[in-house]
């Protein structure tokens, strides 16, 4: 719950969290109060060698906040390693716009490093950031921070991939962005739509819990923060934004993409190795285990299904066609190997169940599903043998693959219940 007090000291809003708490439980939670003089919003602008644009950015942002934001705010220019005079311009703005602008300098480069440092040391109730080029229309600022001020949400992000978003950018960057976010859904089970839009906000109490776990100092910082937030059961509010591509962007797409791939693998390890810390954050904030995104699960399940089906079919073709093992025996052995592989990978990757407890029982259930799959495939081969006795191996293999569709749908429904039962 956040109680926002106006500059004159009148209470403007008092909204309890809506994460399933009873009114009595919400009342027992400590209030985060913004009394007179307390900074409600701190907007961080991370910069690196931006002397040509930093002053215009800060002045425009300050004008917008003065005209539309009725609570105490601050703009923090987080300079991370500039050598072109950006630091001096930011210091001048701090002196001129006293109390509304703060200049922070870090010797080391990295947008993530700058955000983490400034957010952790901020006294504001709501922390936000936006890119220095102001590619995102500032009309989205109020919708971004309002759900956090009311207590409805824990984080808020701008998204360029909503149908109502108006985006002007090249085809190359559009394709890269969509592929990146689709990849996050598959690899990490991400449910948010736009990880890299430079327009985000977070409640300060939530930031203090999450930021110590975020390790990336560069561009992957946003993604890592959001994935951890989802695993902690936090509510992420998405705001469709108007966004205009900056033709002067100096982001190295290839280098950033490689860093992101490494970041995905590292975050997967973090989610496994620091599961107890994540559960502790979830408990302290009063959240529940996230149920997982069905769309991402379907994609991962399909990918595992393709892999295990190839193992099954290649194993069958090799045992029967190359070695001469009888048809039914070759099918059973190949299917057994593929099923054990399928169950293990789906358990850990598709549904995020990495605890050892229950693994044996899940394998037993997988073998029951194997019996169903085998019955279907064996029946298909039996019918084929009686209608086309000398059918070649290639035809048998195709028929075998087609018979597995019903079994696959059933398998997904059963495996999804594993995740639900563990929550």
Structural key phrases:
Spore Coat Polysaccharide Biosynthesis Protein SpsA, Chain A; seven-stranded mixed sheet; 54% helix; Glycosyl transferase; three-stranded mixed sheet; single chain; 15 helices; disordered N terminus; Nucleotide-diphossugar_trans; 423 residues; transmembrane; elongated; transmembrane helix
Describe this structure in words.
The protein has 423 residues and is α/β, with parallel strands linked by helices. It has two domains: 2-284, Spore Coat Polysaccharide Biosynthesis Protein SpsA, Chain A (Alpha-Beta Complex), CATH 3.90.550.10; 294-421, no CATH class. The protein is built from 15 helices and twelve strands. The strands form three sheets. The protein has a seven-stranded mixed β-sheet, with helices on both faces. Helix 11 packs antiparallel against helix 12. The relative contact order is 0.08. The model is unreliable at 1-34 (pLDDT under 50). Keywords: Membrane, Transferase, Transmembrane, Transmembrane helix. Residues 43-210 form the Glycosyltransferase 2-like domain. Pfam families: Glycos_transf_2, GtrA_DPMS_TM. GO terms for molecular function: transferase activity. It is a multi-pass membrane protein.
Would you spell out the secondary-structure blueprint of this structure?
Elements: E1 2-5, E2 11-15, H1 23-28, E3 32-34, E4 41-47, H2 54-68, E5 73-80, H3 86-96, E6 101-106, H4 111-120, E7 126-130, H5 141-150, E8 155-159, E9 166-168, H6 171-188, E10 199-203, H7 204-210, H8 221-231, E11 236-240, E12 242-244, H9 253-273, H10 275-284, H11 294-323, H12 327-350, H13 359-387, H14 393-402, H15 405-421
Parallel strand pairs: 1-3, 4-5, 4-7, 5-6, 8-11, 9-12
Antiparallel strand pairs: 1-2, 7-10, 8-10
């Amino acid at each position: 719950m956040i109680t926002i007090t106006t500059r004159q000291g009148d209470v403007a809003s008092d909204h309890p969290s809506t994460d399933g708490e009873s009114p009595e439980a919400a009342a027992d939670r400590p209030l985060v109060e913004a009394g007179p003089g307390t900074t409600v919003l701190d907007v961080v602008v991370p910069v690196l060698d931006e002397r040509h644009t930093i002053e215009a950015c800060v002045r425009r942002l300050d004008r917008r906040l003065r005209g539309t934001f009725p609570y105490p705010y601050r703009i923090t220019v987080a300079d991370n390693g500039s050598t072109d005079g950006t630091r001096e311009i930011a210091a001048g703005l701090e002196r001129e716009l006293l109390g509304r602008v703060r200049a922070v300098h870090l010797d080391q480069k990295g947008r993530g490093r700058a955000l983490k440092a400034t957010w952790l040391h901020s006294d504001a109730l709501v922390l936000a950031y936006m890119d220095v080029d102001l590619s995102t229309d500032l009309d989205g600022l109020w919708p971004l921070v309002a759900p956090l001020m009311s207590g409805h949400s824990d984080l808020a992000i701008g998204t360029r991939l909503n149908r109502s978003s108006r985006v002007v950018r090249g085809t190359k960057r559009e394709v890269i962005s969509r592929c990146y976010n689709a990849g996050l859904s598959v690899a990490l089970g991400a449910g948010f739509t736009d990880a890299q839009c430079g327009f985000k906000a977070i409640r300060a109490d939530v930031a203090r819990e999450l930021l110590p776990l975020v390790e990336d100092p560069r561009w992957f910082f946003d993604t890592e923060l959001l994935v951890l937030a989802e695993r902690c059961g936090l509510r992420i509010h998405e705001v469709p934004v108007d966004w205009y591509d900056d033709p002067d962007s100096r982001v190295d797409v290839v280098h950033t993409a490689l860093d992101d791939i490494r970041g995905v693998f590292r975050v997967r390890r973090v989610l496994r190795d620091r599961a107890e810390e994540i559960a502790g954050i979830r408990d302290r904030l009063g959240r529940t285990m996230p149920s997982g995104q069905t769309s991402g699960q379907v994609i991962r399940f399909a990918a595992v299904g393709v892999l295990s089906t190839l193992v099954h079919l290649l194993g069958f073709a090799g045992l029967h066609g190359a070695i001469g093992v009888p048809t039914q025996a070759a099918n059973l052995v190949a299917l057994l190997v593929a099923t054990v592989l399928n169950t293990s990978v789906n358990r850990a990757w598709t549904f995020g169940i990495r605890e050892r407890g229950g693994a044996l029982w899940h394998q037993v259930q997988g073998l029951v599903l194997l019996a169903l799959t085998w019955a279907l495939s064996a029946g298909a081969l039996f019918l084929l043998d009686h209608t086309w006795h000398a059918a070649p191996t290639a035809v048998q293999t195709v028929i075998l693959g087609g018979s597995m569709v019903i079994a696959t749908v059933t398998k997904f429904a059963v495996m999804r219940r594993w995740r639900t039962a563990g929550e």
